[in-house]
UniProtKB/TrEMBL annotation:
MF term (GO), any: NAD binding
Pathway: Amino-acid biosynthesis; L-arginine biosynthesis; N(2)-acetyl-L-ornithine from L-glutamate: step 3/4
Gene Ontology terms: biological process: L-arginine biosynthetic process
Signal peptide (residue range): none
NCBIfam families assigned: argC_other (TIGR01851)
InterPro entries named in the record: AGPR, AGPR_dimerisation_dom, AGPR_type-2, NAD(P)-bd_dom_sf, Semialdehyde_DH_NAD-bd
SMART domains listed in its UniProt record: Semialdhyde_dh (SM00859)
Protein name per Swiss-Prot or TrEMBL: N-acetyl-gamma-glutamyl-phosphate reductase
Compartment(s) where it occurs, according to its Swiss-Prot or TrEMBL record: Cytoplasm
Keyword annotations: Amino-acid biosynthesis, Arginine biosynthesis, Cytoplasm, NADP, Oxidoreductase
GO cellular component assignments: cytoplasm
Enzyme class: oxidoreductase
Keyword check for Cell wall biogenesis/degradation: no
Amino acid sequence: MSVKVYIDGREGTTGLKIYERLGAREDIELLYIPDEYRKDPVARKEYINGSDITFLCLPDAAAREAVAMAGDKVRIIDASTAHRVSPGWAYGFPELGARFRENIASGNRIAVPGCHASGFIALVYPLVKLGFMSPDFSVCATSLTGYSGGGKKMIAAYEGERGTEYDAPRMYGIGQTHKHLPEMRAVCGLDRAPVFVPIVSDYYSGMEVILPLDLACLKGVASADELRGIYKEFYAGAGLVKVKDAGAEGASGGGFAAANKLSGRDDMEIYVAGSDERAVAYALFDNLGKGASGAAVQNLNIMLGLDEKKGLITE
């Protein structure tokens, strides 16, 4: 018997990518709301409650409205920021440990991690969890993303007539109020939010989250090789997160690490490069894949007791 799935916000970037991953699956019956009723609250409520699982690919306010419409029997996977630190919601990053995976499998309210937050948490959470980084550590991180991360409005700005400022990487979130900061802090167990610098650049998709570390400030980590070993042990057997043996040379070659290396894919690669004193840990993935729709479908698969990679692109 197929599972009835409704995508509320199918016309957005994330919704379209989820649709692409589910459209050909015989175990999924996608419910389609007529275009003229897409924003009609009565029709949306009917489709949400007529589904087994509903994806929310909406602005935060609309996502909260949709959850208020949903009965207890429908399971929700929310790709917005609205519920990522809300009580009663499972955080949809199963590679962080058995508790996360079990909460996804048994839950009926799942929050998909933010794109920047996915890379940041993949790098910071293991260090705090295992005691190598104290909760009061002053964390700084940078994240480079393709312009599709900004949704349809930003895509149109980059692909239409534009000023020369779009030719160069552009820092944003300069006021240190980026919407992913609350989940970065809460999930990692940090005493305060990190100093976080997101940058958007002139390419369509792909993301690189960078965590620079003075190893003297960590507990019991003597080299970049030891740091890589910590990540390899933590993510051993993880479905969509792989720690690579090589440092910077292995990411793109020639000592460069390109942020679009995993564009079009739904997995994540973690690299560590550096010396006995300083290291850079960085995560490469697609902001539309493991950073959004790929993670959402991975959560769906886990909720249904299926192979978590079903319908996903990992090579």
